[in-house]
Write a structure and sequence with these properties.
11 helices; 356 residues; 40% helix; four-stranded parallel sheet; alpha/beta
Length: 356
């Protein structure tokens, strides 16, 4: 996919202060401090009034007492959903390496694809006033967005695209991937489809886009299985067991119908499908074809090798770190970056197209 980037004017870098909260609540700054640090010393109605303003403005207390607004902590926080997925670890390692060369330390947080857990992490992170924050995805709680905008700390969202970024953005369109995968598989002659996914919002957006395009062409998936939590090989195996009755009989006739195409929202799920197929003597791709997502480091070495959608996590990390460093170098004259790094469809042995 071609890369594209555009820029808009940067947001304000002035964060909401304790004085702003005090003025809006109609109290003294010391009262706001007591509400946050010693709430038992403040009358209930005053405490509730101050807390309402704190929530509305997204104010986050600064635990670096006495520090000046111009001081740098040389700390950047990075939040990823998981590190067991190689594509996220590649992104993190690229970010950490580039920031280290610029003498920044990295604080890592794991959100587990959970916006509420990310919100808790951000509350702790923002209280330390890092110089910058790099997030995975654009799906955050309303309070997280409000707090991030209120602090004025430079933020880079990654692994997604949106029309309403918090600040800077380096990612790709999940909706475009879903549509392009459907187009590609239809062009390869597949007519029967099954989906195996976990309830990760980004993966499900790819699935919904895939289904929408199929519907426009007069097709619909014959099966859709959604598992809870992080993707596992076990889930992929269970998904394959569920689909056994839909598999085409093994045939070598020239006019044999195209096999069931099993589209998985992660390579881990797809690996599970391949593993279960191998254990049962099911021929891939003659009786079923399999497509994953992510092009993890094992995808080219499964048996058969896994067709997938390649995302360059290292490149995302490099671009995210570069955008953040540029902003930190020039906070007043910087622009807000929105970069689409694209993706690549990779055909290997697990789809019939690689056999034709």
């Amino acid at each position: 996919m071609p890369k594209k980037a555009h820029a808009t004017s940067a947001r304000s870098t002035h964060g909401v202060t304790i004085f702003d909260v005090a003025k809006l609540a109609g109290v003294a700054p010391i009262t706001v401090s007591r509400v946050i640090n010693q709430p038992n010393l403040v009358k209930e109605n005053t405490r509730l009034k101050v807390l309402k303003v704190v929530e509305e403005t997204g104010y986050v207390r600064n635990q670096i007492a006495g520090s000046l607004a111009s001081n740098r902590t040389r700390l950047v926080s990075v939040i990823v959903p998981m590190l067991t997925n190689p594509i996220f670890s590649d992104t993190f390692q690229a970010i950490a390496a580039k920031l280290a060369r610029a003498n920044y330390q990295v604080l890592l947080g794991i959100s587990g694809y959970n916006a509420a857990q990310e919100q808790e992490l951000l509350e702790v992170i923002l209280s330390r006033r890092p110089d910058g924050i790099i997030l995975t995805g654009t799906l955050h709680t309303d309070l997280s967005r409000k707090r991030l905008k209120a602090t004025g700390i430079p933020v880079v969202e990654t692994w997604d695209m949106t029309d309403d970024p918090i600040d800077m953005l380096v990612g790709f369109s999940h909706e475009t991937i879903g549509q392009r995968v459907a187009q590609h598989l239809l062009s390869q002659g597949y007519r029967e489809f099954a989906l195996i996914e976990v309830d990760d919002p980004r993966g499900m957006r790819r699935s919904e886009s895939f289904i929408r395009y199929l519907a426009q062409q007069g097709f619909a998936p014959v099966d859709r299985q959604t598992f809870h939590g992080l993707p596992t090989l076990e889930q992929g195996r269970h998904g394959m067991i569920h689909l056994l009755h839909r598999l085409a009989p093994l045939t070598h006739s020239a006019d044999a119908r195209a096999p069931l195409m099993i589209v998985c929202t992660s390579d881990t799920l797809a690996h599970g499908v391949l593993t279960e197929a191998a254990s049962r003597g099911i021929h891939i791709p003659a009786q079923a074809a399999v497509l994953g997502f992510g092009d993890m480091n094992f995808a080219a070495h499964t048996f058969p090798s896994l067709s997938t959608v390649k995302i360059d996590g290292n490149h995302i990390g490099q671009q995210a770190a570069t955008a953040l460093l540029e902003r930190l170098k020039n906070p007043t004259g910087a622009v807000r970056v929105a970069m689409d790094v694209g993706f690549t469809l990779v055909d290997r042995e697990s789809t019939r197209s690689s056999q034709q």
